[in-house]
Amino acid sequence: MIYLFPLTKLLIVIPTTLFFVSLKLKKWIWTIVLNTLTILPLLIILIGLKFPTNKQVVINSEIRYQILDFGQGDYIRNAIESKLGNKRVFLADTVNGIKWLYVKESDFKKLWPELPFEMRKKQYTIKATFKTYELWNGNCSNAILINVQQIDGNPKITK
After folding, report:
1. Averaged over 107-124, what is the pLDDT?
2. Which residues contact 59 (CB under 8 A, 6 or more apart)?
3. Which residue has the higher pLDDT, 8 or 66?
């Protein structure tokens, strides 16, 4: 498992080892240092995912309906966002290198009013406008849904 997911070593194995080593030590300074190293990767991830820069990005795009979503290379963020109740929305057009955004579940329901195959039968798709901010790690923060509109056409469905 460590060879399949290199971040597992960084986030689970090394901090757990340091924690158990710190329990065996009798000196306070080493215990504090090792316990700080244990939570340091999680703090770095939190800072990278939650603290935006001042650069605001407004995105206007149709929605791409991804039927199977088996990760897109951002496993850690996807796990954190899903635990917080946010969902990933794929954009039909890549805007500034952004292929997907995370939105609240209530906004997600507005973007997926029904199954995309039913939308195809009714000949409409969804176009939305989002506002987001760039994060320290180069990704985008959770998007705020500004506008949703139904437009004529077939929805873009991918697997």
Report:
1. 91
2. 91, 95, 96, 98, 101, 129, 130, 131, 132, 143
3. 66
Distance CA 62, CA 92 (A): 5
**pLDDT interval class at 5 (50, 70, 90):** low
Residue in 66, 92, 75, 78 with CA at minimum distance from that of residue 142 = 78
Whether pTM > 0.85 for this model: the answer is no
Contact 41, 12 (CB under 8 A): no
Amino acid letter, residue 119: M
Q: Would you say 86 and 103 are in contact if contact means Cβ atoms under 8 Å apart?
A: yes
Contact 18, 93 (CB under 8 A): no
Question: Could you tell me how many residues make up the chain?
Answer: 159
Domain layout of the chain by residue ranges: 6-50, 53-158
What number is the average pLDDT over the span 49-69? Answer: 83
